[in-house]
Each structure stands twice: as structure tokens, then as C-alpha cells.
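thread: overnight batch results

M.L. [08:02]
morning all. the overnight job finished for the chain we discussed friday. pasting input first so we're all looking at the same thing
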Amino acid sequence: MFYVSDRTAITAETIGHSLLAQFEGITDYKEVTIPYVDTPTKAEKVVLQINAAAARDSDQPLVFSTLAEPATRATITNCQGLVLDLFEVFIKPLQEEFQAVPVVRRTRSHRLGNRSAYELRIGAIDYSLQHDDGARVKGYDKADLIMIGVSRTGKTPTCLYLAMQFGIRAANYPITEEDLGSSASLPGPVAPFKDRLHGLTIEPKRLASIREERRPGSRYASIEQCRAEVRRVESMFKQHGIPFINSTNTSVEEISTRVVQKRGLERHTSL
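M.L. [08:03]
and the structure it wrote out:
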């Protein structure tokens, strides 16, 4: 699988992965990402690479392309792979709908068309890093969202994804064994911000496996400890009416999207 682009190749990868996910059992393949193919000369070198793969392997290579310039696109089209031109699929119908000819510029993909939205994202990333794992609790009043849950449920990657993809200021606070006392009260630092809290939980077996990699043979990683913590934290969520998601078989992307949708958070993604 080749992902070819005249810019970062992020779009080609994202669409390619989404399309391939529709076919169960298609998993045994090698992925090659080739960004910044911005001249016909560079495209010719890519064609040689694709053709070499076609000669070496029994299967025809798939080429997901987001090349904008016609000359470069034409060069790639002549390779010995199945070229899926992702720009061509959409450009022609749009051209007919708008009755306009597109101005082909490589810089139009992933451009900084909205500087303020970009800066909001950068600020959100900085905020999430500073307020990771309960390291800084004073700035919770500026949070759009505070993720809570026991250790190793995926709070940090979720918060960073929310910041990077949506420009959302997401802090996260770990629920410790001390927080899970007999009272089941919300921890002091997050209690005043109940309306911004969203919980993450996980299956105890999966939690024990993740913790075992970090602290082998410890009480922290024991299945008994994991069961107790998960049971008590879910009880806390339910008692205080805090929505929560089970992260066991749910990707960071899906968790983030579900949280944004559930809470009606504003997305700062107009770049």
C-alpha cells in the first residue's frame, strides 16, 4: 500500500486506512508513505519504487494518491499499481457543481487558512500537556473538559488527541486508591468542576495487562486491585451522574469523537 502526496500524505493515509478497514481479513500488507512528491521528477522515482514492488510481489500494489498537479498525477498514473486518485474522485464532481475550474496549488492542502484556529489548537495542546495526570490543578477553571479515571485507562492520549484534532482544552486527573475511599466523593481538585468531568473506565483484565507492563508483579498490576478500582470508580461515576466510556476496545479517535458529540463541545478545526 503506497500513500503518495505532494504534501504530508496525512489525507492519503487517513482515507486509505478508512477504506481498507471495510474489508475484513485484509491485514497482511506493507505500508509505504511517500510525502512531498511535488515534481514530475520525484514522481518518476516513486513510479520506479512502485514498479519494483509489483515485480517483487505477486499482488498488484495499491496507490492512494492526493497529488494536486496534473503533470505529477499523470506520472504516477502510469505506474504498475492500482492508482486510487483521491483528488480526482472529488474534484470533477465539484468542478461540475460549481461550474468553475480549480486553481491547482500544492499549498492549498493542509494550509493555515485560519491562523486563529491554528493558534487555538496550539494553545490547547500546551494546556493539555501542562494539566496532564493531575500535575497542575489550578487551571481547571479554563478547561473545556476534564477526563477522570483510574491510572492507565487512556486519559492522556485522549486529551492530547482532543487538543490536536479539535482544539479542545482537555485536562486529566487520575483517580487514585485514596480517592476511592468509603465515601465515594469526587476528589477535591475536580469536585467544583463536575459539569466538565467525563470518565474513562476499562475491563479489569485489560487494565491488569497494561499495568503489568509498567510494574511487573506489583499489587498495582494485580487483577484483584484492578477489579476493585474499576468497580469503585464506576460506582463513583454513576453516583455523581458523570458520563463515562469504556476504553477497552475503543480507539482514542472514537472516544474523542463520542465525548465531543455527547457534550456538544465546539470544534476549532477550520484550518
